[in-house]
């Protein structure tokens, strides 16, 4: 539409003889050219078609449960009425270290869930999904039959960092780390309480009431 407007303005420019009219047309021409330049590029046809077929709006799924057996990691996603959808409306794409779920047109909405950086590799061919009453079950086939401590690499790193903060060979150092964390994250009241406890502890140390390593 903008392109057609621009062509018409250019045509009028060739016919205009009055300076004032030409100035107005030139300003309009520059404005249209800028608008056309700033337009987002057209989406590829297949993406546009996919969005058109999706309709409604998309909701990101954050709530799920998971379990495991020797061979599978099982992710349970509750979606009311999902069993009434055509099977092709529930799609899961697997890679060796990820999967993404797309549920199309469930009660006028689309639902997505993505897991990247799975803790260990899975078999793409051996993985699948099952549609149950009010639930989708994603079955990730383990490449090796071993226990997973968590689902993703990020979770593992987070747990290890947390453990390192508190789990030290020196008990007093573990306590100090905990107190530092509480102090950093606490409100003013918490900071005052910790400061008071610290001062009292140092006073007792100096009097010899408690061992020096605390």
UniProtKB/TrEMBL annotation:
Keyword Flavoprotein: no
The keyword Acyltransferase is annotated on this UniProt entry: no
Domain of life: Eukaryota
Annotated GO biological process: heart development
PROSITE patterns: CS (PS51203), SGS (PS51048)
One Gene Ontology term of the molecular function aspect: tubulin binding
Keywords: Acetylation, Cytoplasm, Nucleus, Phosphoprotein, Ubl conjugation pathway
Domain CS: 59-152
Compartment(s) where it occurs, according to its Swiss-Prot or TrEMBL record: Cytoplasm; Nucleus
Every SGS domain range: 137-214
Any Gene Ontology CC annotation: cytoplasm
Classification via InterPro entries: CacyBP_N, Calcyclin-binding_UBL-bridge, CS_CacyBP, CS_dom, HSP20-like_chaperone, SGS_dom, Siah-Interact_N
Main location: cytoplasm
Family annotation (Gene3D superfamilies): 2.60.40.790, UVR domain
Pfam families: CS, SGS, Siah-Interact_N
Function recorded in the entry: May be involved in calcium-dependent ubiquitination and subsequent proteasomal degradation of target proteins. Probably serves as a molecular bridge in ubiquitin E3 complexes. Participates in the ubiquitin-mediated degradation of beta-catenin (CTNNB1).
Protein name from the UniProt record: Calcyclin-binding protein
Upper classification of the organism: Eukaryota, Metazoa, Chordata, Craniata, Vertebrata
Gene that encodes it: Cacybp
């Amino acid at each position: 539409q903008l392109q057609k407007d621009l062509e018409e303005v250019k045509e009028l420019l060739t016919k205009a003889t009055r300076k004032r009219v030409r100035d107005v047309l030139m300003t309009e021409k520059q404005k249209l050219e800028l608008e056309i330049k700033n337009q987002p590029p057209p989406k590829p046809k297949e993406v546009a078609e996919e969005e058109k077929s999706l309709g409604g709006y998309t909701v990101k799924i954050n709530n799920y449960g998971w379990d495991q057996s020797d061979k599978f990691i099982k992710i349970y996603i509750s979606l009311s009425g999902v069993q009434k959808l055509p099977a092709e409306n529930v799609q899961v794409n697997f890679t060796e270290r990820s999967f993404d779920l797309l549920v199309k047109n469930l009660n006028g909405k689309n639902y997505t869930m993505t897991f990247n950086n799975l803790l260990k590799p899975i078999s793409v061919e051996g993985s699948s999904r099952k549609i149950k009453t009010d639930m989708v079950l994603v079955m990730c086939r383990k490449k090796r039959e071993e226990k997973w401590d968590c689902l993703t690499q990020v979770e593992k790193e987070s747990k290890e960092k947390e453990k390192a903060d508190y789990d030290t060979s020196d008990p007093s150092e573990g306590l100090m780390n905990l107190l530092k964390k509480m102090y950093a994250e606490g409100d003013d009241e918490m900071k005052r309480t910790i400061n008071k406890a610290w001062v009292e502890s140092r006073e007792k140390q100096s009097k010899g009431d408690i061992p020096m390593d605390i």
